[in-house]
Design brief:
Elements: E1 6-11, H1 19-29, E2 33-38, H2 48-55, E3 64-65, E4 72-73, H3 76-82, E5 85-91, H4 93-101, H5 107-114, E6 119-123, H6 127-131, H7 133-144, E7 148-149, E8 153-156, E9 162-166, H8 170-181, E10 191-196, E11 201-202, E12 208-209, H9 216-227, E13 231-236, E14 248-252, H10 256-266, E15 272-275, E16 282-284, E17 303-305, H11 309-316, E18 322-328, H12 333-343, E19 348-352, E20 365-366, E21 368-372, E22 377-379, E23 383-384, H13 385-399
Parallel strand pairs: 1-2, 1-5, 5-6, 6-7, 10-13, 10-15, 13-14, 15-18, 18-19
Antiparallel strand pairs: 3-4, 8-9, 11-12, 16-17, 19-21, 20-23, 21-22
The protein binds cytidine-5'-triphosphate (CTP).
Length: 400
Amino acid sequence: MRFPRRVLLGVTGGIAAYKAAFLVRELVQAGADVRVVMTRSARDFVTPLTLATLSKNPVLTELVDRISGEPRWNDHVALAEWADIMLVAPATANTLAKMAQGLCDELLLACYLSARCPVFVAPAMDLEMYRDAATQFNIARLKEHGVNIIGPASGELASGLFGEGRMSEPGEILQHLVDAVVDQGPLAGKRVLVTAGPTHEPIDPVRFIGNRSSGRMGFAIAEEAAGRGALVHLVTGPVELGLDRPGVTRTDVGTAAEMAEVCKQLFPAMDLVIMSAAVADLRPSSSAAKKIKKEGAPEVLQLERTEDILAWMGSNKTQDQVLVGFALETEQALDHAREKMARKALDLIVVNTLEDHGAGFGHDTNKVVLLRSDNTMTDLPLMPKTDVARRLLDTLEEFI
Ligand code: CTP
């Protein structure tokens, strides 16, 4: 079972908290990136060290961390923003009541109130507590607020009683999340190849021909596609960027030839390819094995064309594959882009004119025109690259 999502797991203080360790392990094995927030009383039942080790992330409890010297704000808004889903498991009667009322005396509750992602809770308590009118009222209220309730299951309870109140098993909880989230993203199950960054074409072991592409546009597209449920393969040239999003497999390459090799191998399995990399068009005809000394160094560099990866894809694609290219044009931008789109058999081309300050290489913002093969276009204003990625994928969803 695959669950490539960012999960913010809230653990509260009930005996079922011991199952949180198994739950974290199941989530991580399914490909999720898990961060755990525990209530203070949860720490009586399971140690933060156990959950930190299994999740490979620090476990937080306090709104303000006073342990490590200077008081530090544990940013609940950033945690909630980070998450694709929030899951509270186990959820005690006390925490359910506080969530239903909007109380906020725990970091976990502050995260809940800040969360805009889907929220799931797996209640766990004794039979009579679960049946109590107040608990039932709180659960009904949470449902009204859009919270998804998982279980509880029936069976033997920690008190020795039999009945409803047992937390659902970790495997069942995971299955519930997969059914509810993974299969519903607009790009669920789609395979998407995104390229990013420049390529470096070596002159000798220390020098190369490259360009100023930062990779930010491609990384934003990869993140956005993964957030919509796609299984993304990101092939990137040398960049300074990190990416810890589940659902994205990253391959780093150096040269255009290396990028071509990886992309051509991945291509047949892909539903959508977005070539945002600034692949070098030319490379030195030969690269010296040892650093070239200035004494006797050639004054003219002999260059040759690199393989056009996108053109290769265009002539090898099936009818169902969607192909997107980028163009950087400084004059007669749309005419040149149209010609490029036809020549490489693209479905859409993202035209970048560099006319506006703040657009293109090295900036966080970009100004582009989305030109489709049916000759319709969307002229976008200057906006953050993350928003360009969103608008691009909104358009591409219509193709898929
Ligand atoms: N591209 C590629 N392989 C190359 C060069 C470019 O796949 N060897 C891809 C880029 O990722 C981008 C598009 O092709 O999506 C850019 O097309 P290209 O014809 O290289 O545009 P320019 O570099 O702007 O070329 P020109 O100088 O012809 O305008």
